[in-house]
From TrEMBL, chains A, B:
Subcellular location: Cell membrane; Membrane
Keyword Cell membrane included in the entry's annotation: yes
CDD domains for the chain: CBS_pair_Mg_transporter
Function: Acts as a magnesium transporter.
Name of the protein in its database record: Magnesium transporter MgtE
Record bears the keyword tRNA-binding: no
Organism of origin: Cytobacillus purgationiresistens
Cited SUPFAM superfamilies: CBS-domain pair (SSF54631), MgtE membrane domain-like (SSF161093), MgtE N-terminal domain-like (SSF158791)
Domain CBS: residue ranges: 136-199, 200-258
Superkingdom of the source species: Bacteria
InterPro entries tied to this protein: CBS_dom, CBS_dom_sf, Mg_transptr_MgtE_intracell_dom, MgtE_N_sf, MgtE_transporter, SLC41_membr_dom, SLC41_membr_dom_sf
Length: 448, 448
């Protein structure tokens, strides 16, 4: 059945059938599909749709909706039903929903929630954004190490509804410190009488609550884990992070890199309103406007040179553009490389040397090419030489700028992607104009 | 223990202890850690390290190494041991290792492998790169629907070593067609006498073998699945894709987007040799060189205007730079947005209208600002008006170019990221010069 056919059946069951026939359809849908159907339903059917869903289904549905729809649904359900749902919801999803709501509404909702649940949410929302503590959830199953396999399986059965993933059981000691882990596969292959302490795996890979989410993604990707335990400084187990949360982190971090590299402004998507998008993009553009005026005053400084040989201005955009671009190329290589690999000083130096050679090779080839073109276009051998040698030098410098600036930022613990494309481009613009007109002024006697 | 301490213990056990003490350490290490230790071991210890590992451990170790080390290890182990390992290896990892090896070596290795295994690899390597067929593996467990829960659990136990993840069991009919799925959690919560056919979930989300890997990532991310079944056209189950493979896909696709947006050349990382990196980056740079010459000839065409009012050239880099940048901003928003959301014609039109408004807002603000600056800097009201109105128009056009071009490419089923940053920048460069000098020429009488 296509999405549209499913929708027609849903509408029909809402109109003619009872709750039972509606539930028969719902039990076959994934939360994403449920949310898709809800979003595309005619407004007049939406209330009954929500009414017919169970609390558990609503708990699954809400995190899949966008922010506006979440608000709308919570509003339609009323405070009492909403808090029941929030009590049931995984804490990481709950924290992310609450963090987008109006503080007043959050307070109202939390005050109605179970004390135990609301405390957990408070703790979760107090961790720094984009750290392990903020994205972890507490839906894991733990056992003491003196358990037998049989006891472990029984506890697992009792908590199966609660546990988000059933791949690992975590083993803790009397002080709630994490001492081991056992996969469900190992449980299955063991004898029911075996002691957990004997068969568990004790070199557990963990992350600290304060670990950056990007680092967590790196570790999960490295080990191909489905989930990873999160511990406090004293090794107390406080949560787990699952790979589906990490998928979102990786997409978000890649988007942030692209936002920074293209200076496109924070968090603009297809649904952002035009004036919000405009004001998020403006700061960068105004900065660039002023930096662009520096280029203007450099040209102003060399205006007598240009007035004498107007042909010099023909090559200006090409030299500035290519220098800017070679810098962006190097920048992209550095920023993306640092995502999967850390660099020490020696490796950084090796990279800078590599990029120096890249600059020399592309500078020599492009410089030679433009010399020939300039000579045939303008009929001046000196002009060809000036343009060609300028391009050689500016491409080398552009490549190095695009490599060294992000590496320096990285060493200073600043996100290297902040050295965004346009910033590198503008620095290279200014350097390339200085070099080009500097060389041209030196040869001005031969050029005129 | 730190990585270095572990390494010292390993070296000691290789020198003094026997295989048993070495295995005690290894059993606590993850494949990634094993590979890390192997890579950082002094060369004289490496042979013994490999000798002491079991075939299963070698099978886990090899996919974690880089290409050169893989070759080195396979060479050290010899053909006989290597083929044993390749027989055991997950097919997707195997296919990705073989696809980087020399064809002659591949033929030699495959000819020694078990017929059954080598046939599967042949089939896998025949799928188009970057499709579901190429990244799937066949380590899944399937059962017929007449099984009881008890029979299912027994089969699962028998195949537990083989199954990469134990989250789902797939249910197939007599013709090997996929008819249902059941999670391990559901098995656990069911009665041992229940029939699988009664409790299975029959609306299975699947992907086709030819589905693009980016689309697979979108689906897995959407549903928070740990794995997804892959089927042929006739719905025969042929493999599964697991979320850890998808993590790699998402990182790879984000890198490709950044490569294209910054035109930084295909697959350059920290280890790429300088001449290779240079030649991968050159095609773009040479293309940009020629496009840059078009800007040059536009300036050439307007050289009499510039000669009359040299101050016009001061604002040239700023206008071109800002138009280019606003285009890149829009481009980045479109390219990244399309990763998580598909657009129909109506939505595309809405997006274009949104970006038109963004262009008008930022154009009006930046244009007004630069008018004032130009007036105070050069003391000419007309010049201020010319520069400001040019910036207003070019920013609107730049924003639209950066939106419409990738959307058109997307409708034509071309990857919109190919409309790379530099390309949009260059198109906008040319347009902005034409508009700026066009307006300036119209007012030339008032400017001189």
């Amino acid at each position: 059945m296509t999405e549209e056919e499913v929708r027609l059946v849903i509408i029909q069951s809402l109109r003619d059938g009872g709750r039972k026939s509606f539930q028969d359809i719902m039990s076959e849908l994934q939360p994403y599909d449920m949310a898709y159907q809800y979003t595309h339903l005619p407004s007049k059917n939406k209330n009954k749709f929500l009414l017919y869903l169970t609390i558990e289904q609503l708990t699954d549905l809400i995190p899949e909706l966008n922010q506006e729809e979440q608000l709308e649904v919570l509003h339609k359900l009323g405070v009492e039903k909403s808090t029941k749902i929030l009590d049931l919801m995984e804490n990481d999803k709950l924290a992310s929903i609450l963090s987008t709501l109006d503080p007043e509404i959050v307070d109202e909702l939390i005050s109605e929630m179970k004390k135990e649940e609301s405390e957990i949410v408070h703790i979760l929302m107090n961790y720094t954004p984009e750290t392990a503590g903020r994205i972890m959830n507490n839906r894991f199953v733990w056992i003491p190490q003196h358990y037998t396999v049989r006891e472990a399986v029984d506890k697992l059965k009792a908590f199966a509804e609660l546990a988000e993933y059933l791949n690992y059981l975590y083993i803790i000691d009397e002080e709630k410190k994490l001492v081991g882990v056992i996969s469900y596969k190992d449980l299955l292959l063991s004898d029911l009488q075996d002691k957990i302490g004997d068969i568990m795996y004790s070199r557990v890979v963990t992350v600290d609550v304060n670990t950056d989410q990007e680092e967590v993604a790196k570790i999960i990707g490295r080990y191909d884990f489905v989930s990873i335990p999160v511990v406090e400084d004293d090794h107390t187990l406080v949560g787990i992070i699952t790979v589906d949360d990490i998928l979102d982190v990786i997409i978000q971090e890649a988007n942030e890199d692209i936002e920074k590299l293209s200076a496109s402004g924070k968090a603009i998507d297809f649904n952002t309103k035009s004036y919000i998008a405009a004001f998020r993009r403006l700061p960068w553009l105004i900065l660039l406007l002023f930096i662009g005026l520096i280029s203007g005053s450099i040209i102003d400084g060399f205006s007598s040179t240009i007035e004498q040989v107007i042909a010099l201005s023909f090559f200006m955009p090409m030299i500035a553009g290519m220098t800017g671009n070679t810098g962006t190329q190097s920048l992209a290589v550095v920023v993306r490389g640092l995502i999967s690999q850390d660099l020490n000083f020696k490796q950084s130096l090796k990279l800078v040397m590599r990029e120096l050679w890249v600059g020399i090779i592309i500078g020599a080839i492009c410089g030679f090419l433009i010399s020939i073109i300039a000579y045939f276009w303008q009929g001046s051998f000196t002009l060809g030489l000036v343009v060609g040698s300028s391009l050689l030098i500016t491409l080398i410098i552009g490549t190095l700028t695009g490599t060294i600036i992000p590496l320096l930022l990285y060493k200073l613990n600043v996100d290297p992607a902040i050295a965004s494309g346009p910033l590198i481009t503008t620095i290279n613009d200014i350097l390339s104009l200085l070099i080009y007109f500097g060389i041209a002024s030196a040869f001005i006697a031969q050029l005129t």
